[in-house]
Amino acid sequence: MNSLTKSGTTSSETSTRPCTRCGKKRQAKFFTGPRGRICTDCQRKSRSDAHHRRRVGKTYGLEPGEYDILFQAQGGRCAICHGTRRQRLSVDHDHRDGVVRGLCCRMCNGRLLTAARDNPETLRRAADYLENPPAISVLGRRYASEEANNNSRQRKKRSKR
Questions:
Q1: Is 2 a residue whose pLDDT tops 60?
Q2: pLDDT of residue 1
Q3: Interhelix angle 66-73/40-60, nearest 10 degrees
């Protein structure tokens, strides 16, 4: 029988034990039962990883472990912007023939490639535009006013709310 502590909780509610997967000492409430060895956070992560592996395999034809091999080969970074993200990288593929091209962040895969319609020539022209803006060669250097810069910052602040 559990004894009551000064705070009014039972000793089994305040006892801790280590998770066999992550090694963290957790309270009993983080385990599924009195004999549970893996905390609920690790169980959730394990289910999420298994679901991701099944979906990637079914959707893109990647064998078990191939996503991880590609992820390691890219250094854990987006193939385009080389950024790291909290979310998993998306599997990018050619919509015409289904060939898997690599792993990209959601911004590059969902916006950049989509806006360019997967056209390499469009992306080359965009890079050329950024490196050699036509306005500089025609008008010379012109700078946006502080007001123009502040308005874009204010819009960003409003969109975060």
A1: no
A2: 45
A3: 90
Provide Rg for the chain, Cα atoms.
25
Q: Which two tokens stand for residue 27?
A: 């309270």
Mean pLDDT, to the nearest integer, of 45-72? Answer: 95
d(CA 109, CA 133): 25
Cα 16 vs. chain centroid, distance in angstroms? Answer: 32
Residue-wise burial string across 104-138, b where 16 or more C-beta atoms lie within 10 A, e elsewhere: bbeebbeebbeeeeeeeeebeeeeeeeeeeeeeee
* CB-CB contact of 89 with 104 (8 Å): yes
Two structure tokens written together for 110: 């969902």
**Nearest CA to 37 among 19, 22, 24, 23?**
19
What does pTM read for this prediction? 0.71
Q: Which residues pair with 100 in a beta bridge?
A: 93
Cα separation of 19 and 45, whole Å? 13
Q: What angle do CA 144, 147, 151 make, to 5 degrees?
A: 105
